[in-house]
């Protein structure tokens, strides 16, 4: 068996890019339709900057196996839709037992986590703090600061992303909102629907998790 070549990439914290990677995608505000609670405020953002970049990901994918690690950098703009802070779409890994790490390089964020059973964890993320996202947690990042949120991430290359799990439950269970005092508050999402025990079991697939 031939061994893979090492790869050196550079992280540009200032631009929020992984330099010398092999992947790059952008999400515009138009791409984020349906994620936010305040439809009127979202329409106003679309009217102003529908095709501007809301967040972008530069990455390096060395292979496709469980034993390959995709690594990259996510850069997310600061801002709010109404009182709700800007966020990534969020997903669970299609292979749910795959974990992920996120290392915050700059900005202030929340790693918003939700277990299949509906438990919620909000992990505050500042520079040089690393969040371990265990297997089976739905995860999304939220920019609660006034600057770009820049995070390095790594996860097994065969993880995949399942976005439907959030859509099917009417969004994530809480929304991270401006508390009007320079901080955030988690508010219940009234549209959220609990997953059935059968759904939860299908997601966990006999795997183990703590929460
Ligand atoms: O894939 P989403 O939920 O739009 O969010 C993007 C973030 O998640 C990732 O897909 C990694 O799991 C990164 O590309 C980035 O940190
Ligand atoms: Fe992920």
TrEMBL record:
MF GO annotations: isomerase activity
Signal peptide: none
Family the UniProt entry places it in: Belongs to the archaeal-type GPI family.
Alphabetized UniProt keyword annotations: Gluconeogenesis, Glycolysis, Isomerase, Metal-binding
Pathway per the UniProt entry: Carbohydrate degradation; glycolysis; D-glyceraldehyde 3-phosphate and glycerone phosphate from D-glucose: step 2/4
Species per Swiss-Prot/TrEMBL record: Jiella pelagia
Coiled-coil region list: none
Protein name: glucose-6-phosphate isomerase
Domain Glucose-6-phosphate isomerase prokaryote: 27-193
Protein origin, superkingdom: Bacteria
